[in-house]
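Students often ask what a 'structure token' actually looks like in practice. Rather than answer in the abstract, let us consider PTS fructose transporter subunit IIA, a protein of 145 residues. Its sequence is given first.
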Amino acid sequence: MKYLLLVSHGDFSKGLRQTLSMFAGDPVKSVIAVGLKKDEAASTLEKRFEDTVSNLPDDSEFVILADVIGGSPLTTVCNVLNNHGKLQGSLVMGGMNFPMALTATMSKDSLSNEDLQKKIISEATDAIKVFDTTQSSDDLSDDDI
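Now compare that with the structural description of the same chain:
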């Protein structure tokens, strides 16, 4: 089974997973949220994540989205996955946002990692827009947002 692993500082990954459940429904069952808590040592996160990985099927694969590439949460998670022989072949990306997570959730099982990476980057960058606040609220529709 292929899992989407959301990795962050604090509760960002958990909040993102909760929001995904509003949009994606059942596919969120394959989404795991891991966050380094405030004042928590990376070794504590390592132990928590070790327990999570130990309870997953041996053939598990991962798409990993992190808030920051090179941050303690991501490096800790990658070390644990590497120790279990599960990092090789994983797709790891940083700059996590909602469009990336939704695209990964809905497409991870149907696309190769290479195609998924392209789609995630495309969706994430296309979603970055400036909201025009100069229009009157009467003139706005859902299509404008």
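One point worth highlighting: The chain has a mean pLDDT of 92. Ask yourself how you might have guessed this from the sequence alone, and why that guess would often be unreliable.
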